[in-house]
Amino acid sequence: MKAELVPDNGDPPIAITKDLTIVGRRGYCDVVVDDPSISKRHCALVKTDGLIVIRDLGSTNGTKVKGQRVRWAALLPDDRISLGTYKFRVYLGPDDTPGPSELAEIRKARARAEVAPLPPDIPTWLASDKYAESVMNRREAGPEILSTSPDPDLESEGLPAKLPLEGDIDLAFVNAPTPLDGQEAVLETD
Q1: Is 58 left (phi over 0), alpha (psi -120 to 50) or beta?
Q2: What span, in angstroms and rounded, lies between the C-alpha atoms of 146 and 186?
Q3: Percent of the chain with pLDDT over 70
Q4: What is the pTM for the complete model shown?
């Protein structure tokens, strides 16, 4: 069973991986939440089959489940808990399904990939989805030659014509002079 606490304020989800997890404000806790309304050692979470049991550890501002202050309670999926004034939603799900923290990591990775600059020697068109799709569609055709006549799939995108599809491609050709209209240049592969 996968268990996570999802903060209501948009902070990253917190995976509960241990069978016994101590939540508090201090560094020696298993889960540290830096909020002044949370006690040094606020509560304990015990993971069991299908649910989590939460137990308040004598905190100053209390532990609430569904708005009711509790000393201990069984948590079910989508229960709302408050530790002091800090609020969470409880996520419980199967191990083979991505949880909120894993989905957040996937979103971060995608965002980094979208804004990551290309190395200076790689032209922008080489990284385009349209170009990659065109190459994959022609993969079965075998080796091809670089032609100055534009590929119809790429013409509207202003991308270069076909590239060879077999062997290792040396990207040095990008800075090489282009052939005159109507001529063809063979691109050598290693």
Answers
A1: left
A2: 6
A3: 59
A4: 0.56
